[in-house]
């Protein structure tokens, strides 16, 4: 699934989101230029919760 994360603005942001998702057993690839995060291995609600807990505002795209 893919999320748009408009408040992801730097490399630290992408690392924080990827670390949160991977720490929960999922896979994550954050693309700063498009402000999107692609997540695998987790449900949409859980992935969104982890991104919010990392301090960002996810908007599901799929």
Question: Can you characterise this structure?
Answer:
This protein is of the alpha+beta class and about 60 residues long. The chain contains two helices and four strands; from the N terminus they run βαββαβ. The protein has helices at about 10-25, 45-55, and strands at about 1-5, 25-30, 35-40, 60. Strands 2-3-1-4 form a four-stranded antiparallel sheet, covered by helices on one side. The radius of gyration is 10 Å and the shape is globular. The mean pLDDT is about 95.
Number of helices: 2
Main sheet strand line-up: 2-3-1-4
Order of helical and strand elements: EHEEHE
Q: What would you call the shape?
A: globular
Portion of residues in beta strands equals: 15-25%
Helix-residue proportion: 25-40%
Query: What structural class do helix, strand and pairing data support?
Result: alpha+beta
Q: What's the β-strand tally?
A: 4
């Amino acid at each position: 699934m893919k999320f748009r994360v408009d408040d992801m603005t730097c490399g630290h942001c992408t690392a924080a989101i990827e670390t949160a998702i991977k720490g929960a057993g999922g896979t994550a690839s954050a693309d700063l230029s498009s402000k999107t995060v692609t997540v695998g291995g987790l449900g949409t609600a859980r992935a969104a919760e982890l991104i919010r807990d990392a301090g960002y505002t996810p908007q599901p795209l799929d």
